[in-house]
Amino acid sequence: MKEIETKFRVYLWTGATENNKKALVSWRQVCLPKVSGGWNILSLTEWNKAAVTRSLWDLAHKADSLWVRWVHTYYFKKTDWWDNFHSKSCSWTLKKILNCRKLVEDNGGWLTVQKNGKFSIQKLYNNIRPQGEKVEWRRVICNNKATPKSIFILWLAIQDRLATKERLVKWHINIDPICAQCKKEVESINHLFFDCEYSRDVWKLVMNNLNFSTCGFKLEEAMQVADQCFAKDKTKAKLFTMCLSETVYGIWLERNSKVFSHNSRNASMLHREIVFRVACRLDDKERMMLISRSAG
Known about the structure:
Layout: H1 2-14, H2 27-30, H3 44-60, H4 66-76, H5 81-84, H6 92-98, H7 100-106, E1 114-115, E2 118-119, H8 121-128, H9 138-142, H10 148-158, H11 165-170, H12 189-195, H13 197-209, H14 219-232, H15 234-261, H16 267-279, H17 284-295
Antiparallel strand pairs: 1-2
Helix pairs in contact: 3-7, 3-8, 10-15, 12-13, 13-16, 14-15, 15-16, 16-17
């Protein structure tokens, strides 16, 4: 299980299964529910415990199985095996199954893991999976219809996990920390995506599409604007969160292009691509509204 999850982790950050690099976010957090700031990815170790407990359920309820009858006859021999059975002669597999007794007891017994009178692996998994507090920005990620890559980059930006120059310097990497786009200030999350002259030009065009009077905000303020939109106008909230994701993603791509290839598109060209990316994921009515605003 650990080896398989290692390959999952490596693939998430590199796109390969053999190469390894520093993970930007812990695997435990990646496995958290989306409302808790994760991606709701299956935690294999916890799922495996829940699946093995299914065999314990069969033993406890004497399922109509040759294996169950054999274990009861050969090992348990009509004894109180749940509380008193500790045979050292058990196979490795049976020992693992019996070790799940404590897991069931810690979670309130069999009643808490049943669905329609049957054992539910999903219910037990939900009880033992990694948990976390709900994050304030959950709706920006959970209710976002933008492209998956852009949502993922926004998720990293919200947690300040992108490899900006400011963070690279903190990792003791010898680089110039000044923003490659404006060449005026240290490249932090807020500077790169909101304070840089290039970013402000892009945001001005994007905000005009949404009929927003201002675009002068930080990332935290953008999260608050999104929450306000969700409370007042779901259609506007949908457009804003999509534009937020695609704009952050587009600026990040242009930043990388500037750093590694020494060139990037102007704000107007990037704005047109952002509108295109958003429009492709809207229904016809929403798409026409966005395009008409863009044309205006």
